[in-house]
Design goal:
single chain, 255 residues, alpha/beta, 8-stranded parallel beta barrel, 8 strands, binds 2-phosphoglycolic acid
């Protein structure tokens, strides 16, 4: 089974939550309960928590990511953070193109591509988010939207660099709403993303790429979602903020 070729990745997206003391507390609670994970475990924390997270996760199996990065190496980009600034701290992952960036901060497919490029150049592993709006699903254009987002984001990415890309399918209507895509809906779109990658890079690359699902994944629904052939992990928002909930998802991915 192709699924067996891919390592599942469970990544927490803390969004704009947790100050430094709270971050340390959550990581200390997480360390023992995810220590036996058979999947990769990542926490993507606010910039202000990165240093705390790097120190607290040292020697554990928890990897640290940021939630965005800029495409320039440095310069007059007030409030932005470059990919090199992240790698210099030891950060290994970065989320790019989250729907909240697209919805509230004018992120476009083109700027997502620029950020992906910069992150790869700096040596980061990218968690690239794609997903349709409710209206788009209702219009029946989910696969077109997600395919286009994927293709534009991967522009100029080599087959070798693709190994440092994880794609997270996150239907916008399912994020933070408590409305999860059904396991079949998630699997269908994840499969479509894999086909797009196969079309661009060949079947082996399509089979090898980790495609996560994200959007109200929680301790109760994780096992069913993660059991699907094309769902190789999850990007977890709300449920990543509580150690027992996140650990339950990691356990489901480790089965
Ligand atoms: P949620 O968020 O799990 O709270 O729906 C997922 C995400 O936005 O990555």
């Amino acid at each position: 089974m192709n699924k067996a070729l891919r390592k599942a990745v469970i990544a927490g997206n803390w969004k704009m939550n947790k100050n430094r003391a709270e971050a340390k507390e959550l990581i200390e609670a997480l360390k023992p309960v995810v220590a036996d994970a058979k999947c990769d475990v990542v926490i993507c924390v606010p910039y202000t928590d990165l240093e705390t997270a790097m120190a607290a996760t040292k020697g554990s199996n928890i990897k640290v990511g940021a939630q965005n990065c800029h495409w320039a190496k440095s310069g007059a980009f007030t409030a932005e953070i470059s990919a090199d600034m992240l790698t210099e701290m030891g950060v290994e992952y970065v989320i790019i193109g989250h729907s909240e960036r697209r919805q509230y901060f004018g992120e476009s497919d083109i700027t997502v591509n620029h950020r992906v490029r910069a992150a790869l150049d700096a040596g980061l592993t990218v968690i690239l988010c794609v997903g349709e709006l409710l209206e788009q699903r209702e219009q029946g254009i989910t696969s077109e939207i997600v395919s286009m987002q994927t293709k534009v984001a991967l522009g100029g990415v080599s087959a070798e660099e693709l190994k440092r890309i994880i794609i997270a399918y996150e239907p916008v209507w399912a994020i933070g709403t408590g409305k999860t895509a059904t396991a079949d809906q998630a699997n269908e779109v994840n499969h479509c993303i894999r086909e797009v990658v196969a079309e661009l890079y060949g079947k082996a690359a399509g089979d090898a790429i980790t495609v996560q699902y994200g959007g109200s994944m929680n301790a109760a629904n994780a096992e069913e979602l993660l059991g699907k052939e094309d769902v190789d992990g999850g990007l977890i928002g709300g449920a990543s903020l509580k150690a027992p909930d996140f650990a339950a998802i990691v356990a489901a991915a480790s089965k």
